[in-house]
Amino acid sequence: MTTDPGTFPKPRPLPTADTAPYWAALADERVVLQHCDACDRFVHYPRHRCPHCLSDRLSWREVSGAGTVFTFSVARQPTAVMFADEVPQVIAVVELPEGVRITSTVVDADPDTLRCGAAVVPVFDHQPGETTLLRHRLA
Amino acid sequence: MGLRGDACIVGYSEWASERPALRAPRQSLAQWADLAAEALADAGIEAGEVDGLVCTEVFESRAFVPATIAEYCGWSVNLAERVDLGGATPVGMVWRAAAAIELGICDVVVMAVPADPTPTSPVPRPFDDRMLFGASSNAWGSPQAEFDIPYGNVAQNCGFAMYAQRYHDQYGWDERARAKIVADQRVSANANPAAIFHDVPATIDDVLGSRMIADPLHLLEIVMPCSGGAAVVLCSAERAARTRHRPVHVAGFGERLTHKTPTYAPDLPHTPVAAAAHSAFSMAGVAPADVDMVQIYDCYSITALLTIEDSGFCAKGQAQAFVNDHGLSFRGDFPCNTHGGQLGFGQSGLAGGMSHVVEAVRQVQGRAGDRQLGRHDTAYVTGTGGVMSEQSALVLRGAR
Lengths: 139, 400
Description:
The complex is a heterodimer of chains A (about 140) and B (about 400). By secondary structure, chain A is mostly beta strands. In chain A, about 5% of the residues lie in helices and about 35% in strands.
């Protein structure tokens, strides 16, 4: 079984009917989150029903995408072979002021000085023909 | 609420950790049958008495696994469970069997977790995504595939490192405490001939001097994958009275799941261990201070640290001081993972979680040889699946 990184393309999101608006907004350099109109809470990741109350009354709201680093790890060894070219990779959980946490990477951080709580702003990672990823950099 | 504590673990089989594998490759169904036969012989129970089985995956079948095992071993069973809780699977298997026995559904239950290599298939096998993505699913529509994997948030190292980072940020940085868990358990591994690190000591400085894998976790804070396998047999108290060793009662259990990926954990670095532990202790009618040993899931140093704390052996935020103040080896005042833990024994796939159950039974039955504890009546056992996401806990008590 080969695990040559060249054999495997970098995994990119393949949207579903429920998530497509999120990715479409990122392509336009906008961040949108689902909002539950039944319990008035934000939801991430996007899904078919609200995980707080299981209502299906979900709508989309535009947010800044800026937040703080809730926690992170520095992958000194790639977490999967496709990420070998990105190590040391700062993989982070970013907390948005809307009360949701999202998986991201902090693209320009010094891994040795980064701390939880650091303020970050969005970076839109466009790759030709692929879904735009929401990454972050230090504010 | 809960168990009366009637069902007992009465026998086990455990294969020594190996890396590289020395035992010959066998089909996992064959390994299942071997483990079952050995555990039943250990208990002194005939194969024909088995009327329940609990399993996890086997290499040869994607689905219909319990029926395949029942057919292969020649059993007619009233309980056929397949448990899918990652590292929490073995502990989850035990309480499900105990509950079924107390309900009167079955009398003798076998559970096995084979983890030796299987032979190379003569026909090409379809590519398995797990080779690349481990415990994360990259199938279209999977939340992990869409929102986590593309960012490199894959498998286990990264997630447990995130727990460690946040824990230390909130409660203080003491890397030596995390490393002491590894070093103390290594003392026990050095007394266990079946452990992968039987011949290799490790100090706190060795741990902190090992390569950084995912900050702040070093190589020696992460389990070594290996080959192995384990099984246990449970039966009713009535049947247990006629077995070969001291019956070990399943006195209490708890289980709690909250998330798959730490990004979406409700209360990180608080973990679902707290709820599972509370359930297990209250069901058994004992307090954490009452147990003679803890055999807790330790895929990483941070896993054991969080489990000690959230199980109630110390207050939240105090685990680092607790570890520094106590000896965790089999010679210490807080015997923790007396087989070496998976950090010292090795992690043979899902059987790694069974090693904690087997060691608890071995100690309670007084069969632990050079590392036998003086007081060995009550054990606390946990299993952790995913990234602190699937938690199971047991309190086991030796028959009087």
